[in-house]
Amino acid sequence: MEEIHSQSDHYRSSSSSASSPASRVPSSNFFYLRKPGAHRQPISFEDSPDWDDTDIEVKVEEGGGDSINAATTPASPSLSKINSGSLPSPPLPEGAIVSRKIAGASVAWKDLTITIKGKRKYSDKVVKSSNGYALPGTMTVIMGPAKSGKSTLLRALAGRLPESARIYGEVHINGVKAHMPYGSYGFVERETTLIGSLTVREFLYYSALLQIPGFFFQKRSVVEDAILAMSLGDYANKLIGGHCYMKGLPRGERRRVSIARELVMRPHVLFIDEPLYHLDSVSALLMMVTLKKLASTGCTLIFTIYQSSTEVFGLFDRICLLSNGNTLFFGETLACLQHFSNAGFPCPIMQSPSDHFLRAINTDFDRIIAMCKNWQDDHGELSSVTMDTAVAIRTLEATYKSSADAAAVETMILKLTEKEGPSLKSKGKAGSATRVAVLTWRSLLIMSREWKYYWLRLILYMLLALCIGTVFSGLGHSLSSVVTRVAAVFVFVSFSSILSIAGVPAQLKEIKIYACEQSNWHSGTLVFLLGQLLSSIPFVFLISISSSLVFYFLIGLRDQFSLLMYFVLNFFACLLVNEGLVLFIASICQDIFWSILILLNIHVVMMLSAGYFRIRSALPKPVWMYPVSYIAFHTYSVQGLLENEYIGTSFAVGQVRTISGYQALRNVYDISPDSNSRWENLLVLFLMAVGFRVLVFVLLQFRVRNTLSLRRLLQCNQNTKNPR
């Protein structure tokens, strides 16, 4: 303790030149410093709702929307205190009030401890005995340096911890120990995947169709409310990602679009991980003013933040300050300044409060201190920064545990949990058939606008067919042309299959969109695969028929319509198999480099075992014959195309002797003399196309089931007593 006091005294003396506790904040009683002419009011926790007086009344209006009488849920008085003299904040825009109110929900957590195996080198406990609460109509921010447990605590409250996590303690929603049902809350990731080829209104409209049950026309008002709530009216008809002649939305607007996607469900509680992530100061202020306006409608906002400006800091209602998993403070935002002052770390006048907090509790500053000790500054200012952050953290934690703020938090948690409030109910999901139709139509729209999806590939496939066709043109129909024509067919199938690797970026983007929507239950594994398959069929068929026509007539295959249609179907099935293979490998790797590398190796191995370089019957039986040659789809595609061309034909050998097409191919490529064998090969190709998608379904469903089982486990742990 002597070390703590000595370090605190040293830090206090080094900061007193800029500001003293007496001059910065009154030590006897801490007041909000409001505008001139306003009455000063002390910080109080009495602005929290009492369930006896704050029954939330829900009315269902025509058109599927829900309207809540938010007048029964009093807003926090701190909403009127954001514009203080010491922390100037921009006033809310006049007239920018969302008419539709939202019924918020109280969130209270008690003795919440979260362990993640291997997350920390020194301890598995990422969050340690955290207490806090969030009320309707307020913004509660979880602040702290990097790796302090901010996102982990946020995910624990939302029930979104990873598989390796274990949670101990209690989380109450409106006084009930239960996880929040679908539609009652929204969660916005730090980095979300948006669809750049859609406009803001289209993106939100398709999101509403995936989330909300009911008729299409009923959801337009929900989308317009979300656009209004996030102040996106000026960008509603602009493409999110832009195109070659127009830039996409700035980062701030993109971030607001990702939040608006969750607002279409009109959630009671909204969790946001780093809403100011990668935003400049102006965009950050606009974002927080927008969120403040959203909170004024009654929604409960809980989000994490690393650092903020003074203006942004003044908009927060409550702050939960973490460092290395320890709660250093929870309470009213401006009361945190008094807490630091009481602990011996007053905030200098010219410094942002959040900067001051992080300076005191971020252990990374110890490295800067070590550098400053060896760097003699001319004015002596740098060398005076000798505060040990570990001592500061222990001091702040000890001061908070014995303070009236901690006692007030425990009292409020007890008040919020002693009586159950209105339970949150699921708002229902859109039907599976509806979601498949929506995803199919949305994917068709995306593919038609994104030239890199299929239009560029269409050009490449036609150029490839043109090159191969011109190289192998003029073969004729003599016996000597058989070997060369077999080479042309094999090269066409093999090179076209390799060219399908160009679809890896598009498939990875589809998987990222699915993962983002699946995390919030907007989509499903089967729904995603069916929508992706149905939307890709028209474009794949267009590629197959255009490339087949160019190749077919250039190399002079038999001029029969039925044979031409089989060629198109065979190549179409081959492309579907390639699409499934690319999707399967991309789902496993989820990285463009490794996906392309693995796919190239797979195609090379399949080409070697397809029976062209060496007849299948002569391949080494272990590995190459069984099972590689049977897995290689090149085998069935080339074999079917050759059977389609040569079964039923004959070639003259001399003047009196003829041989069948089967005999002419016997020493070149293994085919079956049965005329129906080509249809069997075509069936195998379609079964392989389905089989790869079944593998993708099993892989994605396995991940989803792990997430579901984890959430059930976390819910059970919340209902048990803390073992400590």
TrEMBL record:
Chief location category: membrane
Presence of the UniProt keyword Membrane in the record: yes
Gene Ontology CC terms: membrane
Residues of the ABC transporter domain: 107-349
A Pfam family recorded for this sequence: ABC2_membrane
InterPro entries: AAA+_ATPase, ABC2_TM, ABC_transporter-like_ATP-bd, P-loop_NTPase, Plant_ABCG
Region feature (Disordered): 1-25, 61-89
Regions of compositional bias (Polar residues) in chain numbering: 69-85
Start-end of Basic and acidic residues biased regions: 1-12
Location of this chain's protein in the cell: Membrane
Family matches, as SMART domains: AAA
Biased composition (Low complexity): 13-25
Highest taxon of the lineage: Eukaryota
Keyword entries, A-Z: ATP-binding, Membrane, Nucleotide-binding, Transmembrane, Transmembrane helix, Transport
UniProt GO MF annotations: ATP binding
Transmembrane regions: 454-476, 482-505, 526-555, 561-585, 592-615, 682-702
Record membrane topology: Multi-pass membrane protein
Family of this protein: Belongs to the ABC transporter superfamily. ABCG family. Eye pigment precursor importer (TC 3.A.1.204) subfamily.
Protein name, as recorded: ABC transporter G family member 3
